[in-house]
Specification:
The chain is mainly beta and about 350 residues long. The protein has three helices and 14 strands. It has one domain (about 1-325): Porin. A hairpin with a 6-residue loop joins strand 6 and strand 7 (about 190-200).
Length: about 350
């Protein structure tokens, strides 16, 4: 089993390294995408070691431009185990996103509800299907918009009208997404590999601020991910992950490789530190530092930009923070064990 797992793990890394494209989708995105699972794939809902999980992400991008992009996510998911069932389990989750970008403060507020079902193929293989339904609002701050109509010929006068009329400065829409995930895990309690994909904005909701504007559906986003950990020694794991996603003409590839060092493995005092080097192809190098204490996780990363936009950013892409907390409930005797997934 271990040889099969290692072979699958290395093939995954090789495939991800062969993906090479430029960046930028139209949806919000995180450098630590592997710590925002409900934004990565609805099928990752409930796929974790434990019964309840709380997660948060914060990203502050391009503060030096200054046209900052601020992104926040708060999420919760849990397992619903059928009594005495060894065939599978359900997952349920809630995901809240807030994103604000640019001078006009183009914002997105999104709330999604996720559901999933994980089929237990055997103790090492799991297949999950997930669905996410949500509602969202996009808005702009028209008071911050400037146009050429405010130029007098000699100087810029912000008190002059911009000469543009919007039928609405915000609108609501309904959103549907789905995904699949395959989990392979070893018998050592630490080696695992997730391979999956998400299909976002299946219904392609309209995005327009003017009633007479042409149809402008939100392009569907497709994401493909590989998330792996391989136990090398009793105190060290190899970590590798990759993401390729595209939305309309935009696409993004992120690859990461690192190590997780187990400082303390005594029960109730578990402590580990992970160092990871991420690379967003054609855009940024992203070093990351993680702390794992019992069922807590804190991740810190920073985008060091090197794309053509470096003239504006001076390589300061921006910091990102991820946080999670898992709850493992004690089950009464005779019920389905707490979690077959780790």
């Amino acid at each position: 089993m271990r040889q099969i797992y290692i072979s699958s793990f290395l093939w995954c890394v090789l495939i991800l390294l062969c993906l090479s494209t430029s960046v930028r989708g139209q949806d919000l995105h995180y450098s630590q995408f592997y710590h925002s699972p409900l934004n990565l794939n609805p099928a990752l809902t409930g796929v974790f070691n434990g019964d309840v999980r709380f997660m948060g992400n914060f990203r502050d991008q391009w503060r030096s431009v200054p046209v900052p992009y601020t992104t926040f996510t708060g999420a919760f998911d849990m397992k619903v185990n059928p009594r005495n069932s060894e065939k599978g389990f359900w997952g349920f989750g809630i995901n809240f996103n807030y994103d604000e970008a640019g001078f006009v403060k183009l914002s997105l507020i999104n709330l999604g509800i996720s559901g999933s079902y994980t089929a237990i193929l055997n103790q090492n293989n799991f297949l999950t299907a997930g669905l996410q339904l949500g509602g969202a609002q996009r808005a702009i701050n028209d008071a911050s918009i400037t146009t050429g109509n405010q130029f007098t010929g000699l100087q810029f006068d912000p008190t002059l009208p911009i000469g543009e009329n919007f039928d609405q400065v915000n609108f609501l829409y309904f959103d549907v997404s789905a995904g699949l995930n395959y989990r392979l895990q070893g018998n050592d309690g630490r080696s695992k590999l997730d391979l999956g994909g998400g299909y976002f904005h299946i219904n392609r909701p309209q995005q327009r601020f003017l009633d007479e504007a042409q149809d402008n559906p939100l392009p569907s986003r497709f994401s493909f991910h590989g998330l792996g950990a391989l136990k090398l020694t009793n105190g060290l794991d190899l970590i590798a992950h990759g993401l390729y996603q595209f939305q309309g003409p935009n696409n993004e590839t992120v690859l990461g490789l690192g190590g997780k060092i187990y400082v303390n493995q005594r029960r109730g005092k578990e402590l580990a530190v992970a160092l990871i080097a991420n690379w967003r192809v054609d855009d940024a190098i992203i070093p990351a530092l993680e702390f794992h204490y019992k069922t807590w996780h804190v991740g810190l990363s920073y985008d060091i930009n090197y794309s053509d936009f470096v003239q504006a950013t001076n390589r300061r892409g921006g910091p990102e923070l991820s946080l999670s907390y898992r709850i493992l409930r004690v089950k009464p005797l005779g019920t389905f064990k707490t979690c077959p997934i780790y």
